[in-house]
Amino acid sequence: MHMPEPYRIKMVEPIHLLPKEQREQKLKEAGLNVFSLKAQDVFIDLLTDSGTNAMSDNQWAGIMMGDESYAGCRNFYNLQDTAQSIFECKYIIPTHQGRGAENLLFGLLIKHGQYVLGNVHFDTTEAHITLKGGQPVNLVIDEAYDTSTYHPFKGNVDTQKLEQFIEEHGAENIAFMLITVTCNTVGGQPVSMENIKQVSQICRRHGIKVFIDAARFAENAYFIKTREEAYKDKSIPEIVSEMFSYADGFTFSAKKDALVNIGGMIGIMNDEELYLRLREQVIIYEGFPTYGGLAGRDLEAISRGLREVLDFDYLQSRVGQVEYLGSLLTEAGIPIQTPVGGHAVFVDAGKMLPHIRWDNFPGVALTSELYLEGGVRAVEIGSLLMGKQAPTELVRLTIPRRVYTNSHMDYVAECLSNINKRKEQVRGVRITYEPPVLRHFLARFEWA
Ligand code: F0G
After folding, report:
1. pTM above 0.85, yes or no
2. Which residues sit with their C-beta closer than 6 Å to ligand 1?
3. Domains of the chain (ranges plus CATH)?
4. Which residues of the chain have pLDDT under 50?
């Protein structure tokens, strides 16, 4: 039987659809870059699942229990207890968000010129690796880039490529391994337990430390439970604990699976020396080690969210909603990354709009059309984001947690289906301005 969401709604936030002429005007003013739109001019916002979550009554109650002492606030200790019990890590360092964690950890671990291996690093991750003098290397399996074939764990690291890379470049030139779960850039695709274990064994054999980019750790655990035979009878907390037993530590953007609007942290399993060095660094860049740039109330909301996200019924309805949108698009004949990921449906804009060349950004063209069609905001994950020709031109329809209903999903699918019917007429775009790093946030375009 189809089960509905395991919660009901007790507060609503009105949203509005601007008339078509105004949407045209707003998009033009934004230089065809949806990042430059005002959120109030967007009807359904699928830009990101990051920090866009709806908190529970329990989390809001926790907000009122914020202890705003500069040092040693009780909410830090609550979060530490929670993290220690879920991830079985000895130490945590709170940070203002995921990239704050990346900045601190990478600064200590990367020596100039060293490689940082991963399945596919997220864009801020890649930027922080590069800024610290490191070289990001993506070793995901080839299936990740073939959107039309099914593979249950497209986020897996190719262990053969990994062994070969270590052999060719030497373990001493590798700073560490970072496994991103789920792997955002290739479609929110999960990594199997088997793969995490193997990668960890290979790395440990060579003395290479393993970290997890844990932003969507619970969604990854859900996929392990539902797709990996050996884990079907294990609970989500058991799976999470095993996943992290293969790592030396993790970076975490709480804005995803902690079901909050801001926050992050670093977790260190055992390495006391690394923890002590991080503790010195966090004071310089984020704040005192018991708040790390966050208010006490934020720490409390993260702590409570981390416990809520482990609920199987929640995860099933969460991923179920993403799958529902994916099935509507497939029915409408729109090419998507198969299977859908944990947090988003990735439309293959390159396949949908084959007449648009990569340097006329099919993904940007599609996001623009989607805003014009129905006030829906999506995001390009393709050549614009990569800063060079990308292996795939994707558009991510990212679903915030506990925010929209399936009726919103029906509407989004209808908008895309309308565009699909007139896809030959969709034009590419040309860049008129681009900043030197992370250009996708601020670039401007005109229709080609
Ligand atoms: N790692 C992954 C896998 C991410 O998806 C993100 C953010 C970060 C790290 C950085 O965390 O935003 O808290 O500093 N992803 C967002 C997104 C921005 O839209 O996918 P942050």
Report:
1. yes
2. 48, 50, 97-99, 122, 124-125, 180, 184, 213, 215, 253, 255, 264
3. 20-49+311-447 (3.90.1150.10), 57-308 (3.40.640.10)
4. none
